[in-house]
Each structure stands twice: as C-alpha cells, then as structure tokens.
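S.,

Sequence below, as promised.
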Amino acid sequence: MQLDDLLSSTFNSILRIEERSLDNRLTQGLTITEVHTIVAVGLHECNPMNVVAARLNVTLATFTTAVAKLVDKGFIERTRSADDRRKVLVSLTKKGRQVLRAHNLFHHQMIDEALAGLTEEEEQVFADALAKVKSFFDAQE
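The prediction came back faster than expected:
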C-alpha cells in the first residue's frame, strides 16, 4: 500500500506543481492540457494532425478542437501539405515555441531539484527502476 500512496501522491504533486507553473506571462490563459498539446506539436516540427493526435493518445476530433482553440490564442498554426492538400499540418508559432521552451525549462529545473539529494548511483538506480515501472504502465495502454 505504501508504494501505491507514493506513486499516486507523487503524480498528483507533479500535476499541482505543473499547474502552478502556468502562472507566468508566457502561459497566461493556457490550461495544462493546452501546454501538453503545444509540447506534442514540437519545437520546430510541422506534422500532420493525426501524428500529433497519436502522440497525445487522443482522437483526431478531440485534437482538432484543441488545435482550433490554440490557433485562436496564437500558439499553433495550421497549413496544408504541399504534397497532399488533404493533409493539415500543425506547427508552433513564435508564441507557442516560447511556451514550449518555458515548459521544458520548468521540467528540467524540477527534475534537477528533485534529484539533488541523490548520489549518482542512487539516481541511476532510481532511473532504472522508474523505467521498468513506466514499461509496465505503457504495456497497459
């Protein structure tokens, strides 16, 4: 039962910390789901909508709705593929790239601070164990 509490409370703490990190000028007005959508689009990528929807493990319809909101807010742009005009491609605007960079920096700082009290050996053991746990959860999807 202790491991269940550790996993659940750690997950919830990370979500709360991440939500609090949205309180800055770059991410003003964005939800954590919208930030994760921006992250899935990628920094300098231009991908078909279905590819990014798959990254997020959501339906194309759900992703289309999310993209429409982020286009209106100025974080994502849509274009048609030159090769196949039926394909809609998504990429980040300058404003979207700024959010992605800020979010990535937040994650790096959070991890650095969280692991600061561990030795290199403890950090490696933790990373190996977490990779095994992640593999289990990935297989459940």
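The helical segments are 2-20, 32-41, 49-56, 60-73, 94-115, 120-140.

Coffee later?
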